[in-house]
Amino acid sequence: MEGFDNIFASSHRLSLFFLGLLLLLASALSLANAKTHNHDFVIQATPVKRLCKTQNSITVNGMFPGPTLEVNNGDTLVVNVVNKAQYNVTIHWHGVRQMRTGWADGPEFVTQCPIRPGGSYTYKFTIQGQEGTLWWHAHSSWLRATVYGALIVHPKEGSPYPFSKQPKRETAILLGEWWNANPIDVVREATRTGGAPNVSDAYTVNGQPGDLYNCSSQDTVIVPIDSGETNLLRVVNSALNQPLFFTVANHKLTVVGADASYVKPFTTSVLMLGPGQTTDVLISGDQTPSRYYMAARAYQSAQNAPFDNTTTTAILEYNSSACAAKNCSSNKPIMPPLPAYNDTATVTNFTTSFKSADKTLVPTDIDDSLFFTIGLGLNPCPSNFNKSSQCQGPNGTRFTASMNNVSFVLPSNFSLLQAHHQRIQGVFTTDFPANPPRKFDYTGNVSRSLFQPVAGTKLYNLKYGSRVQIVLQDTSIVTPENHPIHLHGYDFYIIAQGFGNYNPRTDPSKFNLVDPPLRNTVAVPVNGWAVIRFVADNPGVWLMHCHLDVHITWGLATAFLVENGAGELQSIESPPEDLPLC
């Protein structure tokens, strides 16, 4: 028996050896198939004509929107950004995990100092374990109004999509906002007056407003489809300040992915995306060959707040011989019905339909249980300000915004990551509150004493590997609103959401710990709450903020400082040599 045991043990060790060898070979093969994609981004002023008016807009490589970048899961991107514009700029790769490469994340004064006019910086990072639609955009002031583009992550080379039908074509649909003004001037004027900024003059699809606006019909975007084929639409809400409904006349949309994660397919006639969110849908050419409008317009949850109530369109056009015979191109496109601007019921039905298609690893034993209130605020008019011109918020105040009553202030002499890495004192503190400083009826009638937050650069410290749960609670301070909250450097599970005040005794019974969706941006319901979970496995400084840019301008943000773990593979990489200086 002893000899048999020795033979068995030797055989087991040999099996383990060959298994390890196979894993090494598979890893090496994966690396061999992975590619490095090099791109040059030149930030420059470019004449762009929209709505009958030409203005100098800030673009990438003279394109609006900017170039679409396409990679496969596992590939590396190297993007050299040269700033030939008059403004400081950074580029954020929205939704990319940036594992250990936080220096490439991009938010100004958070992970880097801005690229000054005449300067350059090379972003280098690998996209691993993500597939679907992401995007990139400027993360300096309001430059992302025109500086943005799609970032498409295909499956590993040779691998199909996990769909029942492989798409014949793929089309990126970037929804945006357009001002008949310089967006930088718009936000600067609002900062000067303390009031709300002027709303946009149009929404756009791939940079074009569409048929319903003046001087726009000639350039309306055409999306081709053939009878019988199934296509993939990659929809991105790249608008600056507005959640948007999106629909296609007479066609059902099968949702298959969101924020570069696959979801269990479900069918809908309308999407709602908060700024920053992406949704992948399959659309079938199963209607009478003709022309059908794709349309997007505002979902407006804030009460008594001005908003752009126009509608942008593109055209889904059948290319079949039957359509050619009927000269479909001359047909007036069919217009779809759109939800009412304040149709929160439709939004709720849509957002609660998402379930993860992949195996989930939802953290259960929580180390950091956090509760963040989010919302607007009002500061009184400072005594040295002109009340009529510099305090144009409600009743002579100035707008502000906060999380847990802290209105976030960005540093200006160092980036937060640089200050952390170099142990520079006095740039930030790590005393961001884990809970609201004062409990109150968050969605009820809030006392005016809670309208004025405290300004500060306060971060929340997380140990590497910490299992985190955050309750995000909307408030009715000034007005309740649907807030798209984006976390840099992480995906997170949305395990529950609801209306009213979150109840820690009864609402955990609603938690989905089996197949919750994995997202990077969560639309916190108006007058409601959402609960998210993630594991802090990516060291660095990571911004969490409302993706309505007017709100981050007012301070609706915070940041997590995630400590290094054990050893090199759990520590952030050293900063690149060309990292911009402040």
From TrEMBL:
CDD domains named in the record: CuRO_1_LCC_plant (cd13849), CuRO_2_LCC_plant (cd13875), CuRO_3_LCC_plant (cd13897)
Main location: secreted
Keyword Thylakoid: no
Reaction it catalyzes: 4 hydroquinone + O2 = 4 benzosemiquinone + 2 H2O
EC primary class: oxidoreductase
Record-stated family: Belongs to the multicopper oxidase family.
Name recorded for this polypeptide: laccase
Organism: Populus tomentosa (Chinese white poplar)
